[in-house]
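FYI - complex with fe (ii) ion, inputs then prediction.
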Amino acid sequence: MKLIHLTDLHIVAPGEALFTLDPAERLRRVIERINLDHSDAELCVITGDLTDKGLPAAYGLLRELLQELRVPYRLLVGNHDDRQNFVQAFPEQDRDERGFIQSVYDCAEGRLIFLDTLVQSHGYGALTDGRLEWLSARLAETPQPAAFLFAHHPLQSIGMPHFEPYDLLDRVAVANVLAASSQIRHIFCGHVHVDVSGSWLDVPFSASRGVAHQIVPDLVSRDAVFIKDAPAFDVALIQNGNVLLHRFRLGEREIIGGWPKNPVLEPVQ
Ligand SMILES: [Fe+2]
């Protein structure tokens, strides 16, 4: 199974800029590359901060941009999103019985579980108000052994002091749910605008620098320096519960060689 993971688009209303960036243009380039090289993917999951301020005009632009994507997509919300405006723009995206943007996608490789960690108007995240119980229930009813979690906020600390006020609040309760499950094979997350991966409670996780702006990975200071670097997205290949992750960055690209040599194949001496 091929899966695309995008995160942190931070789309703004048409005509506006984010710092000096045009987030829509960056997403356009990412979509072009996915359509060119990975249109065979089964699903594209975007793990939140879809917009920068949660405005209806930004969700409208996002919807337009996503019409070009040749891979079916599933959207999560992040701390920069507005749940109500999101639902108005994307009413077809699944929700749980309490209205949180939580759902599952069952496929040959197992169950993908999409979580809603948004606490409206706050930078930190949480799985309170029944969301964690929903996760427990979805894990309990999983008919196949493998489960893959998607959330905007990383479920664990990523070791950057800047993010401490913006972490997941109920980490201990979440840890208990994860520790009680042996099905979870990988956690895909966003929020942090840096490339980071590792493991938590024996479960691997990954986050990429995302599509919009990036943050210098400072492991000492609480300050954050925002930078403009190449947009990135991940391609996950999942087979028999194993996950292989490739990260693609959209910097300048020029073919300068390769094998076999192109366009003329030279005979081996
Ligand atoms: Fe973000």
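Residues 8, 10, 49, 78, 80, 191, 193 surround fe (ii) ion (CB under 6 Å). The longest strand covers residues 232-239.
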